[in-house]
Amino acid sequence: MLTQERYHSILQILNEKGAVTVSELTRILDTSESTVRRDLATLDEMGMLKKVFGGATSVRQSAGMLEDNVSNRETVMESEKDVIAAYSATLINDSDFVFIDAGTTTSRLVDYITNERATYVTNGINHARKLLQKGFSAFMVGGKIKPLTEAVVGTEGIRSISNFNFTKAFMGTNGIDIEAGFTTPDVDEALIKEKAVEKSYMAFVLADHTKFRKVCSVTFAKLNKCCIITDSLPDKIFAEHTVIKEVKK
């Protein structure tokens, strides 16, 4: 087995199990302990796993229920968000009925949209304002306003989305993980996201590379339910679970 193949196998095992011992890898990869230890040391230096006594653990980050406000998040990974948003805007066709999720990357998407013939629905307050200023045909989801993210959430929002059948949905996420899928810190926002994905013919998650291997409190969709548009894919193992488009700067 080639070195890169071993690396891929080790990372796949860790993503599935969370931890693995040297002896397990020696048996699974049919190679020597010295080779496995050398591979683990290299992958640890690359930041792909955490080397521990007798084996390794996944570097999956747990973000829990912590969430930053919109103004702070808007200045993070700005160029990456612009590249992702600009490409995503080209996917909108004249006949599309589009859901745009609240979030900073999806807000950038609205900046790049030029299609005046499509119809748009959003639960983002800032997104709705931008769509209105552009003169687009747009609907605002009704419900409870969450100040931290400027998103509309709650039972009324879910009920209104349930009446729609979107051709495309452009979603934000706080974390992407093989096992946990797409996650967010807030239960109410997760329920809105879940319903939007469910009611869409095609769903795209717009996420820069820092969102991978990160897990928040609530899953709103499994990986195979959405395509991912990102600036850089940190591990090709994710591409085994869904369609991923890398948009380079």
Fold blueprint:
Layout: H1 3-17, E1 19-21, H2 22-29, H3 33-45, E2 49-52, E3 55-58, E4 61-64, H4 70-73, H5 78-89, E5 97-100, H6 104-112, E6 119-122, H7 125-133, E7 137-140, E8 144-146, E9 151-153, H8 155-162, E10 166-171, E11 175-177, E12 181-184, H9 187-198, E13 200-206, E14 214-216, E15 218-221, E16 227-230, E17 244-246
Parallel strand pairs: 4-14, 5-6, 5-10, 6-7, 10-13, 13-16, 16-17
Antiparallel strand pairs: 1-3, 2-3, 8-9, 11-12, 12-15
Question: Would you write up a description of this structure?
Answer:
- The protein has 2 domains: 3-59, Winged helix-like DNA-binding domain superfamily/Winged helix DNA-binding domain (Arc Repressor Mutant, subunit A), CATH 1.10.10; 63-246, Rossmann fold (3-Layer(aba) Sandwich).
- Strands 7-6-5-10-13-16-17 form a 7-stranded parallel beta sheet, sandwiched between helices.
- The chain has helices at residues 3-17, 22-29, 33-45, 70-73, 78-89, 104-112, 125-133, 155-162, 187-198; strands spanning 19-21, 49-52, 55-58, 61-64, 97-100, 119-122, 137-140, 144-146, 151-153, 166-171, 175-177, 181-184, 200-206, 214-216, 218-221, 227-230, 244-246.
- The chain has 249 residues and is α/β, with parallel strands linked by helices.
